[in-house]
Amino acid sequence: MQTTDQTLDEILALAAAHFKVPREKLSPDDDFFKTLGINSLQTLDLLTKLENHFGVELPDYELQGVTDFRTLAGKIRARL
Amino acid sequence: MSTVEVLGRTGEAMSYRLNDGVIELALHRGPCNEIGSLSLDELEAFASALETLQQPAHALIIYSDLKSGFCAGADLRELYRRSQTMDKAEALKGVRHFLERIHRVLNLIDAAPLITIAAVSGVTFGGGFELALACDLIIADKMARFCFPELRLGLIPGFGGIPRLKRDCGNAVVRDLLLTGRSFNASKAQQIGLVSQVVAEGEALRVARATAAQIGKFDRQTAIAAKRFIKPIPHEELRQEIDFFCELFSRPEVEAALKTFVESTNAQPYLP
């Protein structure tokens, strides 16, 4: 099973690619709404990408209050 | 209506055309095809034209021209603004009238004597989900997401979603979506039998056209008869849904929830 850091790396890479921002601009503890400049509908797009990539189903109510990539990685790992 | 309008029409919220036996209805009202009075007017015009369009057609494809998604549902901002300009009884009467009109359109699409395909991508929420459910087949790309968010506003789906989803996928699926307000992706939708094909991002319309072409090879009368046999319209439950929706809408909690949604600067208003 992959490590937390690997999961985090993959999430950051996916987010960077999907929202077309340089990977180096993203850090695990960033508020992704602010850093990526996205709204909640775009967050759902990111969620879909992550579910497809990791092969998990993550109910979106688990994202309530989640604003950083590290916490998001924890939620995904709980479903692996 | 002129011959040109019958074969195709470009509206503000949507456009349709008939080409090679396939009617295509393209939704294009930003930000995400929210269904308010303009969209309903144009849907009614389309439904009216459908009677003539469907004569030489074997399929109807409904899709969105917007990158933002298929349809985010009812135009809640318009609903809230209008309800604030009238007394409660008038507002409720207006809501019932709106629901009855949208039900007429969706019932017509649901029962249309041709095969209907919703080609969806991105947000397919609430009334948008209900529009897709009125179709015989749903083809979704990998970025499609489905949801009944109405419970978050103290409401239930009002455009016929509950009876149709129950008809197609069963009561347990309805309970899961309705009671949690969660969204789920195309892969899950296919697992539960809601979506017939999941395709690469951006490919839903192309695949819908290929599917329509395949359908066009078979005897049309047989297809229509088979559809009538296997896809009953749940008329009684659809009527009950309107009554139940109106009952819930009259509560102060709904006005408060709508106000919160409309005035929100929260980055997460679409998350349950």
Can you summarize this structure?
With 80 residues, chain A is mainly α.
Written account of the structure:
The complex is a heterodimer of chains A (80) and B (272). By secondary structure, chain A is mostly helical. Chain A has helices at 4-18, 32-36, 40-54, 69-77. In chain A, helix 1 (4-18) crosses helix 4 (69-77). Chain A contains 4 helices and no strands. The mean pLDDT of chain A is 91. The relative contact order of chain A is 0.21. Chain A has a single domain (4-77), classed as Non-ribosomal Peptide Synthetase Peptidyl Carrier Protein, Chain A. Chain B has a single domain, classed as 2-enoyl-CoA Hydratase, Chain A, domain 1. In chain B, a hairpin with a 2-residue loop joins strand 2 (14-19) and strand 3 (22-27). Helix content of chain B is 50%, strand content 17%. Chain B is an alpha/beta fold and 272 residues long. The longest helix of chain B has 24 residues, at 88-111. In chain B, strands 1-2-3-4-6-8-11 form a 7-stranded mixed β-sheet, sandwiched between helices. In chain B, strands 5-7-9-10 form a 4-stranded mixed β-sheet. The A-B interface holds A 33, 38-41, 43-45, 47-49, 51-52, 57, 59-61, 63-64 and B 32, 68-69, 72, 122-123, 142-145, 180-185, 187-188, 266-272.
Structural class of chain B: alpha/beta
Question: Which topology of chain A does CATH recognise?
Answer: Non-ribosomal Peptide Synthetase Peptidyl Carrier Protein, Chain A
CATH topology of chain B: 2-enoyl-CoA Hydratase, Chain A, domain 1
Domain module tally of chain A: 1
Question: What is the element string of chain B, with H for helices and E for strands?
Answer: HEEEHEEHHEEHEEHHEHEHHHH
State the share of residues found in helices of chain A, binned by percent.
55-70%
**CATH superfamily caption of chain A:** ACP-like
Determine the strand fraction of chain A and express it as a percent band.
Answer: under 5%
Percentage beta strand of chain B:
15-25%
| SSE string of chain A | HHHH
